[in-house]
Amino acid sequence: METKLEKKYGLFTAIAMVVGIVIGSGVFFKAEKVLTATGGNLSLGILAWIIGGIIMIACAYTFAVMATKYEHVNGIVDYAEAAMGEKYGYYVGWFMALIYYPTLTSVLAWVSARYTSVLFGFSITGGECMTIACLFLIGSYALNALSPVLAGKFQVSTTVIKLIPLALMAVVGTIAGLLNGMTVSNFTTVVTQVNTSNALFTAVVATAFAYEGWIIATSINAELKDAKKNLPLALVAGTFVVILVYILYYVGLAGAVPNEVMMKGGEAGAKLAFQTIFSTLGGSLIFVFVIISCLGTLNGLMLGCTRGLYSVAARGFGPKPEVFNQVDKETNMPTNSSIFGLLLCGIWLFFFYGAILADPIWFGFFGFDSSELPIVTIYAMYIPIFFMIMKKETSLSFFNRFAAPIVALAGCVFMIIAACFSHKMAVVSYLIIFIVVMIIGTMFAQKKADK
């Protein structure tokens, strides 16, 4: 008898997945990047957060509409297959399994290790940091492989824990800033005069990457109770929570320290703000919360990563589908797929170190930021899906069939333009590797007959 993935996650876990994956390390440093990009113009920065949030909500809502119609194994792959056919679904799944999931998972392992290293005074590019990153990767894999239910509970717990410092800064920082005049001063003072359109474009790029991650929550579609009802609720509710938290935290920071100090703070900006509001001890404790936040994000990414090749094999595609579609009867985990996913994470962690952290970098022209360009690729892959929604889903209302997909399409095009603007020639080197991986995928694009 074939072993199927069980319905074991509820609505709260799914919402926590969306919030927990998106709100991770980005919330603690993207605020400073947005502030710097806008020259300390808080109003312009808030507008950037709103625009980035609209892009996320439009895409999430459009997929939520699709979720009410399709429910199979692995969210985005199912939607791609339903809209464009089996072969397109396969190539999306192949990309997710070999590039998207493992690149982001490996980067989050390093980010978690980075803040741990800051806490203990280690180098963020040295051997200690990379050793910790490897340990976090293995630990997250073990948690998901040995007890998927416990991994889901850990996701809920880390989401609640990470919201504590954010809520404290949003509330206490804002109140303190209003009382001492810091908030008003920061909102009425522009540190550096910048070109408004260029500044807004750059700032929205930063928020777009900070908002990324919600789509990974669709990987538990087949394991979510009453998925057709709960997944749309989780996607929409989760994205709204993220936007609200980001903006309130951004405003809270404005009540903690002057804009010019935050802009010069670098990676210690959040720590400096918390030290100002909650004393030196509070500034140190924030790094503990940051680490927990990053580990929660890592856990959510690892959940998707371990199911990457399974989503392909379950359809009869890919290398050895009879091997990679096996599910462990005790843990209800696709074991072979998860082991392969962990291996890919290790390879991409090695690449990230050589391309970004090593001095000098190891890969020269072929070095690129593996934390951002794969995200842009998945947005590009959304485009034909949204077009097909408008063409095929005649039973939907005008808003669901046309309005929401058009806004989502505009957001996807923006992301592509933003990538070219931000990464320049690195886009070319990334595309070369992407094409090679996809060509290899063509070797396994023939569907195997069920035995």
TrEMBL record:
One of its GO terms (cellular component) is membrane. It is a multi-pass membrane protein. The keyword Metal-binding does not apply. Pfam families: AA_permease_2. InterPro entries: AA/rel_permease1, AminoAcid_Transporter. One of its GO terms (molecular function) is L-amino acid transmembrane transporter activity. The chain crosses the membrane at residues 9-29, 41-67, 88-111, 117-138, 159-179, 199-220, 232-252, 272-298, 339-358, 373-390, 402-421, 427-445. It is found in: Membrane. Keywords: Membrane, Transmembrane, Transmembrane helix. PANTHER family: AMINO ACID TRANSPORTER, SOBREMESA, ISOFORM B. This is Serine/threonine exchanger SteT.
